[in-house]
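Problem 12. The chain below contains 154 residues. Write out its predicted structure in token notation.
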Amino acid sequence: MVYSTPTAAINETYKKLFNVQTRYSGPLVMGFDDEKIAEELQVGVLFFPFKISVHNITVFIFALGSSTLEELNFTDPGYQSSFSHKFRGKQSLIVQSILKDQCQKDIYQQAEKIQTYSGISPKDAFEQCLKRKILVAGLSGKTNNQVSLNFPLT
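Solution.
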């Protein structure tokens, strides 16, 4: 059986092996609270995904890069982020990517891609799908200590 979290796997294993109902925190049982274990797990890792919250939207940034191209907000091919928002009245996952020759916004609903917008810059790609704009610089947003965000509000 596959469990969705370490905590669920550990709790079910303890329940089966020891016939107990005690709940355990998966990360603690696995030693993630131990600084030495945490440091060892980070060896050789060049990038850690992170999230930021802007205008009550949490943006998950899972790939980065840098360039000297101002029109790409100094990111490069390989940049990817995602956030959840309503699109055409339904909750959707919006995945943003900077590819070799274009910037792309893919809209997913229930794990199915329903729409793709692309352009030569993050701003250009978003202008295709925006009904309303919030800070025009684009979600790649590394502009002068300001994180910028555009997203569809339909």
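Discussion. DSSP finds four helices and six strands in the chain. Students who got a different answer should revisit the alignment rule from Section 12.3.
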